[in-house]
Specification:
- It is built from 10 helices and 19 strands.
- It is an alpha+beta fold.
- It folds into 2 domains: about 80 residues, Sandwich (Immunoglobulin-like); about 240 residues, Rossmann fold (3-Layer(aba) Sandwich), CATH 3.40.50.
- The protein has a 9-stranded mixed sheet, with helices on both faces. Strands 4, 5, 8, 9, 10 and 11 form a 6-stranded antiparallel sheet that branches. The protein has a 4-stranded antiparallel sheet with strand order 2-3-7-6, with no helix packed on it.
- Helix 2 packs parallel to helix 10 and helix 4 packs across helix 5.
- The longest helix has 25 residues.
């Protein structure tokens, strides 16, 4: 067993949740505080760069980058907002170079770009807020993947998992977006806190959530000393589909057997769900549709399959839609109405409707962001395994 002993255990006894202390705290040797969240929801960002000639702030809380001003000490700053309460990625652009906020320990895990995170609290607790409720456990795992390659994933177990030692739990395999890592659903999506809160309110069933890294080729390249391959630009290209198949093979042949050996799980199709955001949503659709004997619940966030792929690869689903509807306890499709993939996702939903395949959908305001993904997860978690 390749389980790492790095475990994040969230205990209700040790939680200190105070909205008067919301700024991410800098390391001891930093002399700036950034971000600094004010009571009126405005936020001040600071970046010490005495030799920089130009610094901008870019974040998903505003439509365009904001210019920062330098003071006599060489610290650049800008105050923006008020900002709608949520968690947002942001970064500085110093003389044309993107950099994370060095005063902020909260970062966005990603293979390509580097960003920091700012959590703007609401006047009342949000779905991802840390509340005084029982908390589950987040564990970092290593598992044997292809050949001599070691895969990595993050697993959430619910608050009652350690207590109910004879109970079996259903599993949601939750996949990240393009260039995101196995940590992104945890650190940005706040999966553990969302499920803790929903379970405490009896809105969601206790479940295990497994968060793998969806980029098998990048893992292989990294561990064999080769550069990571570029991400396919066309989501429906032969290369993109082949990469999705590589992940599917890793999930079916390596990840699921590892989880079912080391965790107390319901090991049948009714106890397995698969879902994902962006690239992960496409992977969830392909893996779920291609393995209906293994999954009864499929959730797609901000993603789609083309009519061409549905007609050529998954004709069995729509040629016998009655059988498909019997097999699927849930097919869920969500997207924001300003998402760059909105029109393609709507076309996918139109295809499902035309072919009489049952599905549930949620269209929200907003674009292709993790702010929307948290909403999608919170909604689907309440209907999974019910």
């Amino acid at each position: 067993m390749l389980r790492t002993n790095i475990i994040y255990l969230f205990s209700v006894v040790t939680i200190c949740c105070s909205y008067n202390f919301v700024s991410a705290q800098p390391p001891d040797d930093q002399i700036v505080i950034s971000p600094q969240i004010h009571p009126d929801k405005t936020v001040t960002f600071r970046y010490m760069a005495p030799s920089a000639r130009n610094v901008m702030l870019s974040g998903q809380f505003e439509k365009q980058a904001s210019a920062m001003k330098k003071d006599s000490s060489g610290t650049w700053s800008v105050t923006i907002g008020p900002v709608k309460p949520d968690i947002y990625p942001y970064y500085f652009i110093a003389d044309g170079i993107q950099v994370m906020d060095p005063a902020n320990v909260d970062y966005f895990p990603n293979e390509r770009f580097k960003a920091s995170l700012v959590d703007i609290p609401g006047d009342s607790a949000l779905i991802h807020s840390k509340k005084n409720v029982p908390h589950g456990t987040v564990t970092y795992e290593y598992y044997p993947s292809f050949g001599f390659i070691t895969g990595s994933l993050v697993a959430y177990t619910p608050p009652d998992y350690e207590k109910n030692t004879t109970s079996l739990y259903p599993v949601l395999y939750l996949l990240p977006g393009t260039s995101d890592t196995e940590e992104t659903w945890f650190k940005v999506g706040k999966v553990n806190l969302i499920l803790d809160n929903l379970i405490a309110e009896n809105k969601a069933r206790s479940m295990i959530i497994v968060m793998p890294n969806g980029n098998v080729e990048a893992t292989i390249a990294e561990q064999t000393g080769r550069p990571k391959p570029a991400d396919p630009a066309d989501r429906g290209s032969t290369e993109a589909i082949q990469r999705s198949i590589s992940f599917q093979n890793d999930l079916i042949n390596n990840i699921i057997p590892y989880i079912e050996k080391n965790y107390r799980v319901v090991s049948n199709r009714y106890g397995r769900a698969i879902g994902g955001f962006s690239r992960g949503g496409g992977q969830a659709l392909r893996t779920g549709f291609g393995n209906m004997d293994m999954f009864s619940w499929i959730c797609c966030y901000s993603a789609y399959l083309t009519d061409k792929e549905m007609e050529s690869t998954y004709s069995n689903l729509w040629e016998d839609s009655g059988r498909t509807n019997e097999l699927l306890n849930l097919l869920w499709v969500s997207v924001g109405n300003q998402d760059s993939l909105y029109s393609q996702t709507r076309e996918f939903m139109d295809f499902l409707t035309e072919k009489n395949i049952n599905y549930k959908s949620l269209i929200t305001p907003g674009s292709h962001t993790w702010m929307n993904s948290r909403t999608f997860l919170a909604e689907t978690a309440q209907v999974l395994f019910q």
